[in-house]
Amino acid sequence: MSDFFKDIPKLAYEGPDSPNPFAYRHYDPDEVVAGKRMEDHLRFAVAWWHSFAWEGGDPFGGQTFERPWYPQDDMGRAKMKADLAFEMFDILGVPFFCWHDADLRPDQGNFADNLSTLDEMSDHILGLMESRKTRCLWGTANMFSHRRWMSGASTNPDPEVFAFAAATVKSCMDASHRMGAENYVLWGGREGYETLLNTDLKLEQDHMGRFLNMVVDYKHKIGFKGAILVEPKPQEPSKHQYDYDAATCIGFLRKYGLEKEVKLNLEQGHAILAGHSFEHELAVAGAEGMLGSIDMNRNDYQSGWDTDQFPNNVPEVALAYYEVLKAGGFSTGGTNFDSKVRRQSLDAEDLVLGHAGAMDVCARGFKAALAMHEDGGLEAARATRYAGWDTPAARAMLDSDLASISAAVLRDATNPAPVSGRQERLENWVNRFV
Questions:
Q1: Does the residue 11 lie in any domain?
Q2: For the chain, what is the domain count?
Q3: What is its main location (predicted)?
Q4: Does 3 belong to an annotated binding site?
Q5: Is 267 annotated as a binding residue?
Q6: Is 124 labeled as ligand-binding?
Q7: Residues 101 and 165 in one domain
Q8: Nearest CA to 22 among 341, 351, 345, 308?
Q9: Is 113 an annotated catalytic residue?
Q10: Based on the domain organization, do 163 and 295 belong to the same domain?
Q11: Digit-coded pLDDT (tens) for 204-260
């Protein structure tokens, strides 16, 4: 075992006035709010890929981190990485982790060896889980990094790549099932196109829909009780990805008969790339009963790509959790930090404190969201704004037709006066809580 995390103490709640950098100031996992422990509301998860597999590169430069489990091409180092991951889970006291297959084991270049090493790593992780509290929130397959995926996975023009993708997802679902995962996620990555000049868009989307139906069928075949989730992202690396945003994914799921079987895993950074706010994406999914889980990271608003930074904006986080609460809170889902420390943040302490700070920000934001939710002022203002639709005449109009409505407008000399949306008043109301 490496001493990578040596001298870093287990974090505990010490209150907002604590000067200790290795303490929680706002996140008390045992604090009971709205009838549940904070840990059970927020359901924090550490992302295996950005915390342990990412080497600190960016589009213009390579590895900056030096970790004892590098290079990541050896099963012995893969097991060391897992051991140290659980050491950090213990330090943070997090209840969950998430993974891609390529995070856990080195890519062997062929499916049989990938399957063997994934099974071996699953056994190792199950052994680590026996004496720890941390459980698996979800697993997924990395079908975007290796060159075989350069033209997509389920949407690939080569049927052999489709077959390799199907076998890969089956192996990851099996591993997730063995680990007791509460969800299984599919993120397209390269399920999209670079140019329409060489793309059969309808065929690719039909194949993607059929693939996802196979995933759902296999879930029921093996008795996996978790939720199947898809994760929207508009672009990067593809010019246009088919799972562009929440609304696009919902439409896709309905087209292929999956709306009752699949929900969404939504990420703040992906929402920004799609030109939306995070609360917009959460509200769209929540309105359709399809909000499953979230990746709580952020993008740099001055960069046009996915920077995956830890959250640090309490008002933004509060508005996001307000939509989560409106949707009924998490059931199988949770708050995964699909976040990475900056490539200049080299130390083990940086990795721990990045998560600790994010957990505090989320706890503050969640408490503000809960206070707003319990106060009810925002929903009361909305109800007042739409109160006109509660009248019998307004409801009857929706069952009418254009000619009848037009006749009524002429008969009653209808000439509506605009009514203020009161946006500034509502923004001031939100600021009372954050």
A1: no
A2: 2
A3: cytoplasm
A4: no
A5: yes
A6: no
A7: yes
A8: 351
A9: no
A10: yes
A11: 999 999 999 999 999 999 999 999 999 999 988 888 999 999 999 999 999 999 999
231 is in an annotated binding site: yes
Instruction: Say whether 74 is catalytic.
Output: no
Of the residues 100, 207, 355, 373, only one is catalytic, namely: 100
Locus of tokens 């700070």: 357
267-315 pLDDT, tens digit each: 999 999 999 999 999 999 999 999 999 999 998 888 778 899 999 999 9
Same-domain check for residues 53 and 167: yes
Q: Is residue 309 part of a domain?
A: yes
Containing structural domain, residue 351: 32-375
Q: Is residue 255, in this structure, part of any structural domain at all?
A: yes
Same domain, 294 and 343: yes
Assess if residue 384 is contained within a domain. Answer: no
Which of 41, 50, 103, 276 is catalytic? The answer is: 103
The reply to whether 355 and 397 lie within a common domain is no
Same domain as 214, residue 126: yes
- Please tell me whether 295 is known to bind a ligand: yes
